[in-house]
Amino acid sequence: MSLLHPTEGEYIQHHLDYFQLNLHTMHLGNGGFWTLNLDTLIVSITIGALFLFVFWLAARRATSNTPGKLQNFVEMLIEFVDGMVKEAFHGRNELIAPLGLTIFVWIFLMNCMDLIPVDLLPKIASWFHVYDFRAVPTDDLNVTFAMSGVVFLLIVFYNIKVKGLGLTKEILSQPFGWWLMPINVLFRLLEEIVKPVSLSLRLYGNMFAGELIFVLIALLPWWIQWTLGGIWSLFHVLVISIQAFIFMMLTIVYISMAHSSHD
Length: 263
Description:
single chain, 3 strands
């Protein structure tokens, strides 16, 4: 889509369209089930690689004498996440702290793409004849559901690994006893399904709303864009931080529940 003088509706729709590739036809810009949102993949993978490189660099340069600013920052993040894990996770699992750190930092960085001026990256993409480009991966349901789906698989895995045959007893008898076995199973299914759905929709809904507000602000006269945009950006920093924190904490809590028994 390339419009010199778009209407308000066309401008909003332009910022809500993805740069897509249909795997079946191998054509750009086609929707359908077998479609990749290339902009989402490019931004999320780039941010993830940058995150890993910075932390790898901090680990390579780590010293016990006089730590630099990067090492202090990384250690502060690690200590923060480790403290949250110790409070919320009641078990022993060496994966949880690195998982929580990865979730928090990666989601926070993807959310931060919402703070970039809404027309900047689409304008740069247009130089390469890409006219639809969304810069915030976490306002793509594919990303939020994929991340929550991985968390769901970890919940199932640790339920089976930790509880073994006791998991069957727990599903069939809790919370209403053996006499209400069908209701127990139904409640358990609903409980497990709600976890990844709520995780993904909460993050997606907040980030989509934030992006839409930035797009609407961009439609206002230039003399008020900076004022409202600055105010909303300051508030949005709090929103993106809270959303990353909530996703991390709920992941830790859900996996902690998988390690605990109802007996």
